Amino acid sequence: MQRFLLYLIALVSGFCSPLQAADSHDTSPGIAALVADLQVYEAAYDDIDAKIEVAYTDTRPVHPEDPNTSRVTQSLEQVRFSRTGGKTRVEASGEFQSPARTTATYQLSIFDGTSTYVGADDPLVNIYDGLHNHSRAVYPHRLLSFTVDPRNVRLSTYLLGDSAIAAERPEDSPLPNKTVVARVLGREEYDGLDCTHVRIDIVRVSNDKMIARWDYWLAHERNLLPVHLKGYIGRVSDSIPVAEGWVTAWTQLADGVWFPVTAETIRYDSFGIAKHQQQHQTIVRTIHVDEVTLSPDFPDGFFEHPSIPDGTQVYRINDQSEVYEAYVSGRSAASPGTAATTEPFRNWLLVGNLAAVAVVLAGVALRRRRRARNSHAH
After folding, report:
1. SS3 for 72?
2. Can you give the pLDDT at residue 79?
3. Is the pLDDT of residue 318 over 60?
4. For residue 242, how far is the Cα from the chain centroid?
5. Which of 27-31, 98-102, 187-191 has the lowest mean pLDDT?
6. Which DSSP string do the residues of 84-127 spell out, in sequence order?
7. Do 176 and 24 contact (CB within 8 A), yes or no?
8. Domain 2-294 belongs to what architecture?
9. For the packed helices 342-377 and 2-12, what is the interaxial angle rounded to 10 degrees?
10. Domain segments of the chain as ranges
C-alpha cells in the first residue's frame, strides 16, 4: 500500500493544492511589515534538529447524524526534522490503529542540496529535482497547524500569497479560481500575551467567497510564534470554527528565542456545526517536542542520499511533478524522457482496456452457452 501511495503522490501531487493562482487580491498594508518581522524570527531556526511526537485520535461517527456510530482510529508518530546549510532531512515513523488493523509507517526524506530522496520501508523510491518539501517539515511558526493544514510552508511565505507559495513549493501545480488573501486584524491579548491577530483566507476568485480561513494570534513576547489558531470552512460556517488550536507550554532556547513544547488542535464535526450550530469534538491532535537544538552538529554523510538496494523501483521527478525517468535499481535505467508523467497512465489505461475487453468477451461467450443450453432443453 505504501508503495502505491508513494507512486500516486509522485504522479498527482500537483493537482492537490488549492493555492496556486494569479495574485488577484492584494494583502493588507500591515502584512508587509509583519512578514518582514517574521522573516527575521524564522531565520533564527534555519539550522535546527528537532524531535517531536504527534498523537492523533479520530472519533468521527460513521453516520453524521448519529454520534453513537463513532469508530475510533488512533496514530502515534515520531518525527525528526534536521536542517543545516539549506539541506534537510525528515524521518517519520509511527503506528496507525483502526478497528480493523494496526499498520506501521515509515518514511525518510533527504534534500542534499541538489535533489530530494523520498523512500519508505518498501522497494520504491522517488527522487525529486531540487527541494521537495515534506509534509512533516518542522517550521516553528507553523507547528500549531502541523499536519492540520496541508500547505506546509513558512508562515511568512503563506502570508505573502500565491506567488511566494509557488516559489517555495514549485512542485505544486496551478489550480484556477482560488487565491490566498492575508490581512492584519489588529492587536489583541491572548493568554496574557500581546498578539497580532492575522487572518488568511482561501478565496474563490470568481465570486470572492471564502472557501477556508485560518486565524492566527502571533505572540510578540514569543518571536511572533502562534499561540492560538482557529480554522473555518466557508460552506460550513464563517462564524463557528471547525478547528481550534493552542500552545500550552513553551521553552526558551536562547535569549529571546522561544519554541513551543506542547500544542493541541481540536477538530469539530462539520455536520453538527452546519446543521445545529454546535461543536462536537471529533479529532484531537497533540504535539509534544521531545528535543530541539539550534545550530546543531551532524555526523558526516547525514544529509547524503542512502544507497538504493537492487530491485528497488525508482522514479525521477522534475519540479513540475512529472516523472521523466523510471527504472529498477541494479538494471539499466530507462532513457530520460521516456517515462513521462502520462506514460504510466497510458500503460494502466491499456491494461484496463484489455481487461474490459476480456470481461466483455467472457460475457458474450457465457450468454451464447446459456442460449445453446436453452435451445437443447427445448
Report:
1. coil
2. 96
3. yes
4. 18
5. 27-31
6. ETTEEEEEEEEEEE-SS-EEEEEEEEEE-SSEEEEEESSSEEEE
7. no
8. Clam (2.50)
9. 120
10. 2-294, 341-378
